[in-house]
Write a structure and sequence with these properties.
With about 350 residues, this protein is an alpha/beta fold. It is about 30% helix and about 15% strand. It has two domains: about 1-235, NADH:ubiquinone oxidoreductase-like, 20kDa subunit (Rossmann fold, 3-Layer(aba) Sandwich); about 240-345, no CATH class.
Length: about 350
């Protein structure tokens, strides 16, 4: 399209038609500056937050590789502290439900994380528990085997490398010459995101499987999300994805992985090695069994499973030649509840004082 520029020396020389066109253009320009191009579909607003977790979920977002370009073409990232310079006050200033989708990774270990969970719930239309820590507590949740006092005692006094002659431990507030410094309160109990606020969807995994992240994003863009409360992982177990052959399933002895001569094709349970596959939701494509490592359960409880540890204990008991075989399991809490203690029926150890 080409335009011809006509210069009039005086305003009264401008034809009425040109005046109308100029008025229309000015209005359109003002509208564009205020609201964007009306012919271009408005982009969604995404947010990412990292609470009590290792940070692997943040990396998983980038592990979608060049697909990240498709995401930013359709969505603006308005909050992502690990990647962009934005402050909590900026989120607090946002209108309620301003964020279309927030991917919240990490468990709730302290006061700050609980505050951000509640704030982002208020500011987001859709809140996704992203990763095992947010969904089930993950390894962070194993802290529920102790309380704050015991954890601080270990971290700040008992470890061989710690030198703390003044017996300093974290305080929520301390006065220094420059003023008052504050730290968030460290909680006794690790909570999941769903135990803290209302969650719309769950995308578990340590980190979430990349294909499932892409499928979730596509579902968001195409307005094809499942009913609220759904998992965004497949509705089946790891065993359904595992290529290893199931045989007689008789468990007479429990062994560690280094104690067997793995034939690389037989189910680990048939070889006496604990595998969390029967109690774990699919989605990763059985990545660990495919590289000859038993499933550890990071995708969280399988479909219709309330308690992942109880589910695998029941599965093992159903194939054990003697129930006492189960007692051979080394570190049952760390094995059966590695990723889900905080979201289990047990939830935490009761500590009497």
């Amino acid at each position: 399209m080409r335009f011809r520029l006509i210069i009039y020396k005086q305003t009264n020389q401008i034809p009425n038609e040109i005046k109308q066109i100029r008025l229309y253009v000015m209005r359109a320009l003002n509208e564009f500056l205020a609201n964007g191009d009306p012919m271009v579909e408005e982009k969604l607003k995404f947010a990412f937050y990292w609470a009590a977790s290792c940070g692997g979920c943040e990396i998983a977002v980038l592990d979608i590789n060049e697909k990240i370009l498709d995401v930013v073409a359709k969505a603006d990232i308005v909050f992502w502290p690990v990647a962009i310079d934005i402050k909590y006050k900026d989120v607090e200033a946002m209108p309620d439900k301003y964020i279309d989708v927030c991917f919240f990774n990490g468990a709730i270990r302290n006061e700050e994380q609980e505050h951000m969970a509640k704030l982002l719930r208020k500011k987001s239309k859709v809140l996704v528990a992203f990763g095992s820590c947010a969904c089930d507590g993950c390894v962070v949740g194993l802290g529920n085997l102790w309380d704050k006092e015991t954890i601080f005692e270990r971290a700040y006094f008992e470890t061989p490398s710690t030198k703390n002659p003044e017996s300093v431990t974290p305080k929520t507030s301390v006065r220094v010459k420059e003023g008052e410094l504050e730290l968030p309160e460290f909680y006794d109990t690790v909570k999941t995101l769903g135990q803290t606020v209302d969650v719309d969807y769950f995308l578990s995994g340590c980190p979430p499987p990349i294909p499932c992240i892409l499928q979730a994003v596509e579902a968001i863009f195409n307005n094809k999300l499942p009913p609220k409360g759904s998992s965004l992982l497949p509705n089946k177990s790891i065993c359904d994805e595992c290529p290893r052959e199931k045989k007689d399933r008789k468990l007479s002895e429990i062994k560690r992985i280094y104690e067997i001569d793995d034939d690389l094709k037989t189910c680990f349970l048939d070889q006496g090695v604990i595998c969390m596959g029967p109690a774990t939701r699919a989605g990763c494509g059985a990545q660990c069994p495919n590289v000859n490592v038993p499933c550890t359960g990071c995708d969280g409880p399988g479909p219709l499973v309330t308690d992942q540890g109880a589910a695998i204990t029941s599965a093992l008991a159903s194939i054990a030649t003697d129930l006492k075989v189960i007692e051979q399991a080394v570190d049952p809490i760390g094995t059966f509840y590695k990723y889900s203690l905080a979201n289990s029926i047990l939830r935490r150890r009761v500590i009497k004082k």
